[in-house]
Amino acid sequence: MVSRRLLLWRLVGCLLIAFAIFVVPATGMTKSAKHIRFPVGGWSGDFLPPYIVQVVLGDELGYTVEVLQISDVASAVALSRGEIELNFFLWFPNSEPAVKPFFENGSVVDLGVLYGDLPQGFFVSKREAQQYGIRSIPDLNNPELVKLFDDDGDGKGDLLGCPAEWACARLNDETLDLYGLDKLYEQKMGSARLLTAAIIGKMEKNEPVLMSNFWPNDIFIHYPRGEAFVYLEDPKKFWGFAHVPKLANAKWVAENPKAVELLRAMKISGEDIMWMMGQVEEKGDDPATLEALAREWVSKNKALVDSWLEAIE
User: Fold this and answer.
1) Exposed/middle/buried for 235, CB within 10 Å: 0-12, 13-18, 19+?
2) Fewest CB within a 10 Å sphere: which of 4, 64, 132, 148?
């Protein structure tokens, strides 16, 4: 018969084994102070900036980066809670309301613009823009243009717009109202993929296109802004220009001053994002490929990267 003392020691032994199996490995997997978690959405323009950070902060300061798939609003909440450290994929002013409460409570810090001066609003195929002198949104108030962009023959010009659940769908309708074009044009809504396919189909057939979009975006990889499309000026400044800020968790900012100074210095261009999107489309988006592309970009832009590094010298 086993004594109570022996049973007690066996129980202690089992607990120690359990501790060794479950607690020790978990402790060993604790994230280091130099590990940064980054969110990306489903847009290929988001994919490379985290890897550029990984290359620069990794090579210079020893940081590692983990990239997570997450939605816009969820990423703002996660940043405020410290579940991620950095966020480089929210477009302002469109996504600013999702972050505003966390600016106000001090849990999120804006480290400046990553890339900016990004046009959003209405674009027209360049051939039609040149032929009809379309330079701004008010120029659309022309019966000839209404017929030109009337794809379904209902007497109204068709603006290829946004998915109904996106904020830009509402903004497109408000733009038409603001410029007195709501009786002449109507927005065609649908999934982003179907709208893009429709635009590409029309461009391939040399048909006129009036669309709502933003730059940089994937449609401009094969149909560049300025070469295939013209951005229509917005004299009432309804849309304004967008930018993507470098957002950080406030606690992380306080604990990583040198990395923060380097991040504050980092700035790239919309043209850089277009290059990155084209490379991702051509070569893929697996982590190894993205890191290789990031290193290629850093190598090609050595003078720019060196100017960032001056912030920590």
Assistant:
1) exposed
2) 4
